[in-house]
Amino acid sequence: MIAPLVTVRGISRTFGAGPTAVHALRDVSFDVEAGRMVALVGRSGSGKTTLLNVIGGLDRPDAGSVLIDGEEITGLDEDGLSQLRRDKVSYVFQTFGLIPVLSAAENVGAPLRLARTPAAEREQRVRLLLDLVGLAEHAEQRPGELSGGQQQRVAIARALAASPRLLIADEPTGQLDADTGRSVMALLRGVVESEGVTVLVSTHDPVMMALADRVVRIGDGRLEQ
Amino acid sequence: MIALVRRRARAQWPVLAALLAVVTLGATLLGVCALLVARSADVALGVAANRTAPEQTTVTAYTSSVGGPDAAAVVDATRDVLTSALAPFPARTAARASSVLRPLPGRDDDARTYLSGVEDLPDRAALTSGRWPGAAGEAVLLEPTAKLLRLRVGSIVHLAAKPPENPAPAVDLTVVGIARPLPNAGWDRDLLAGTGYQADFNDGSTMRRFPTYGPFLVGLDGLVTGGSSLSRMEVVARPDLSGATPATLATVAAGVRDADPRLTGTLGDRARLTRVASELPDALRAQQHQQDVTEAAVLAVAVLGTVLTAVALALAGRLTAGLRAAETSLLSAMGTSQAQRVAMAIVEAGAIALVAAALAVPLSALVHSGLSHLPPMAGAGLTTGPELAGAQLLVVAAGALTLTVVLVLLAIRTEAPHGDRGRREALARSGADLLLVAFAALGWWQLHARGTGTGLLEVLAPALLLIAGAALALRLVPPALRVADRLARRSDALPLPLAAFEAARRPQAAAAGLLICLATATATFGVSFDSTWHRSQRDQAALAVGTDLAVALARPPVAGQGAAITAATGAAVVSPAADRGLAVGQWLGDGTPPRLVAADTTHANELFRGRLPGKRDWTQVTRGLAPDGPVQGVPLQAGSTFSVAATGAGDIPLTTTPALLLQDSSGLRTTCTTASVPLDGTRHPITGCVPVAGMQLIAVALPVETAPGYFSPGNTVAVTADLRLAAPVGDLSSWTVTSALPDAGQLLQPALAATGSTVRMTARVQIGGDSNATPTLLATAFRAPRTVPVILSQALADGIGVTTGAKLDVLVGNTGVPVEVAGVVPGVPSAPGDAAVLADLDTLTRVLAAHGDLQSPVDAWWAGAPQRTDIAALHLGTVTTRDGESARLTAGPLNAGLPAVLRLLVPAAVLLLFAGMLLHVTHDLRDRAVEVARLRGLGLTGRQIRTVLLGQHAFVLIPLLCAGALVGALATWIVTPLMVRSETGAPPVPGVVPVWPWATEGLLILVLLAGCSAAVGVVAAVQARRAGAAQLRVAS
């Protein structure tokens, strides 16, 4: 039995109040084992993004708890959550989330700068990661000069830069064509294999579900298992 | 469509409110300028006219040789002409008339007298005994006349009838009072200038001169109706110019100009000569010109404010267009035509213009009223309540409409594809920059080359220069940011380097940059222009007065005045001064003779005022002008008298007019003379020479003349003159005795000896000869230099083409004086811009004395560092102070508009900058809300995100503020010396020194930085707090 990296217990999240209140999550509980790739599947508005935001510390639940690597994060203050995202959790967004004014290499190096990694070490790590995602030759290009797939690869490289324990990817292929999406998913799969990173990814794509170690379905804010 | 516009307005009210605020601010600024130019300028002209010195507003009609029967009618007609010339203003008239000279009865010296009728006599003289004349036949005498004629109250004088050519009936006059003339009461226009007696007066009716006594002061009505012919008649009209308007002032100026021919026509042959004189038209013209100068500067500031507002509006409009980009695309997709979009933009802009104008009209009236209650307008008498003016309404409406055109143009602008737009915009911007620079250069040249007038380009020039400078300065910012980018790459941290990357690599909004740069430039330029203008006015005032306090004497100076002025003012230095014309042979000029200014240069720094170029001061400049040491003469007791007895050997009848040169404790040199005395050994008293203590005798001159009509060339006569003093003379070995210059060799073996209280002067005088000069035996307590070292004004030096070291001959009065140019200065104290000569008074009077001219050239007093300036009670003459002149130039009604509008421009620029910055930052951060949220996703804390946001704006803002300040400073150095003018519109003298008040400018930039930082900080804090899941959800 592999110990869970992520433990979600009784998470609820409601937006608004009164008759117009939206119950995005209702008593959600599940575990994600370390070194696994878990696909979070559900229709639009099912609560996938909210759940990922709560797990990543970008949003706070109304009830329940989230433990990452044994650390309860729902009680952390803003600085604690920032520290968590810096050290243990990283994100890959559907819209890539790259900083437009930075080159691919600088985007990948941003988390390392946050950790105040010395320049030489940072550059070496950036080269390694860009090589890993197959973009070593595009290091100096800015996001606007890269294709969607390339941008998402850069985003994955950036997410891996600080060697996180958990990589959260919110529909990383949502804006990509099928082939590019598959290659991105393959890259994520490869990362799990090579880097031992735990990946929690939300998706609609059945192909991607097939690449996952486990599929967690969510509907109307509840897990469907 | 209207419904859509209305619904959109409801939804986007903050944006529209921002646009409205900017348009309202600009229109208000224009409205205030319009009120300053239209309303305040009119009031200022009226106030200035009302404050004009009385001697400049009076209109005087002079007539002469009026027949007795016509006298009363001539007086009445003259009054009518003057009062109608001054209409619509009420005028008070005062007449005085003098009869023809009439023989004094019972005299064997053919003495004459005359009658004078003076209105307002009690205001012009003080009774010492008796009463003022009432009935016909009653008269008052001046003290000297009464004393010399041995008349007293109750005396009766019978004046016989005068021959028919100038008839005057016999009259019996009863003396009913004795009076003393008051200073500055118009006695200078009396036949004998109020002295009561003149030994050899000529009234111009004949060639002969008579001992003349008078006047017998009688009632004017009695004189003009008594049948006596009048030799002179004068009517003075003093208008009350309160409530004057430009139109009424123009009317009165025309009326006064026309008065002279009207008077001539009205009087016809009832008077031989008629003349109407007044400085009023010239004074009013000068005031109008001064007002024009101020108006031009106010208009230049208004243009600057409008340009700034337009730039702020362009920024706001672009941001609004960006905000509505999606909406515009949607409308296009739904089939809305370009014409419909234009119509919507016009409706919206029209509504904004309407509301802005409606707000700006009362706002501008309130702001104008507020400004008028603050210095300098309040001090200038321009205080007014909130009021509306036609020009204001027109300008506000036109301004609001014009500004909103910018909004329409931005709203309907078609976006080109990105690549094309970038190239096209870059090309257009380069072209616009070049055009701006060309226009700015043209404007500068126009300013540089302009005379005393002002054209459109000169009014636009400052705005053109500032906007061109700001546009060019914007191009300096990207290279600076690239340097920051390179430095940031070396850092291991993220927040600040990321801020630098964002600043350097993100395309910056040119409109925002231009607004920040231009507003900073405008504000800093406004502050420095204000300081430069004030400094220049103070400099002009200092040089114009020449000292701290100047008294232009109404009468010749008398001993003891210096001490009285010192006591009254507590001044550190008080010096007699000469400020008069002189003749320089080489000078052609404009018909105005060069001026001679002479005062005590041994205290030059304490006494002289007026900025000199470089770091020179007046002590340095005037070094070498003064003699080595003060004169040590023979001390005299107050009230002591002299007597002189002269003899000439042989039987040639000789006369002399002894002249004593005395000096009081303040250095004033006065001359004491007696009537011409024969050289017959008779002793003649010389009295009244030593009215105060502390005086000393420093020179004696004895011109030796033959009796009238006697001509005996070739004879040499031994002349001896004994001057007896009241006390022992002491040692006179340091005295010099010589012949006065030019020495024609007629005076031989001059000698001087002192025995007890007697000074004996001897010489052998050759009578006749080729020279026209009177041989003058001269004894002085000083050695006079051969030439007077002088400083020339640049205008004179240029005009006669001389430089330092040149030697000239100038004519001071009737005395030729050799001078040597010791230096050249841009302007001589009290004679700015004039051709003038500055000399040391001591040196000048020594040299004049050496030429036998002992008459004092002094006609003024100068005082340095006075504690008090109100010395009107001394009745010395016209008092002018440097501070008073400064106040007139800086806060006078005709000048106050400029500092007032600058006071408005600076806060307006600051407000527009803050508003623009707030709009820009709000839009920028809102556009990038998702990006900010992702920074949080990267693990940046709220503080780090704020650092990134603040930093990236600071990286742009600080160079822009610095660039703006640099542009403001450059404009100060380039433009202000050309914009600041004298009150005549000519370049000021001394030249303008640009002033950059570091403390104020530093504070202003700090305020701008703090305000902008606060705006960015607040928005960034809100944005950082909001950055989170919500934005990420939106993004996803």
Automatic annotation (TrEMBL), chain A:
Residues 6-225 form the ABC transporter domain. CDD domains: ABC_MJ0796_LolCDE_FtsE. It comes from the Bacteria. One of its GO terms (molecular function) is ATP binding. SMART domains: AAA (SM00382). Gene3D superfamilies: P-loop containing nucleotide triphosphate hydrolases. Keywords: ATP-binding, Nucleotide-binding, Transport. InterPro entries: AAA+_ATPase, ABC_transporter-like_ATP-bd, ABC_transporter-like_CS, ABC_transpr_LolD-like, MacB-like_ATP-bd, P-loop_NTPase. This is ABC transporter ATP-binding protein. It comes from Winogradskya humida.
From TrEMBL, chain B:
InterPro entries: ABC3_permease_C (IPR003838), Macrolide_Exporter_MacB (IPR050250). Belongs to the ABC-4 integral membrane protein family. It is a multi-pass membrane protein. It is found in: Cell membrane. The keyword Transcription regulation does not apply. The chain crosses the membrane at residues 296-321, 342-368, 388-414, 426-447, 459-477, 509-529, 900-919, 954-975, 995-1022. This is ABC3 transporter permease C-terminal domain-containing protein. It comes from Winogradskya humida. Pfam families: FtsX (PF02687). Its main location: membrane. Residues 909-1015 form the ABC3 transporter permease C-terminal domain. The keyword Disulfide bond does not apply. The lineage of its organism: Bacteria, Bacillati, Actinomycetota, Actinomycetes, Micromonosporales. Keywords: Cell membrane, Membrane, Transmembrane, Transmembrane helix. PANTHER family: ABC TRANSPORTER PERMEASE YTRF, MEMBRANE COMPONENT OF TRANSPORTER-RELATED.
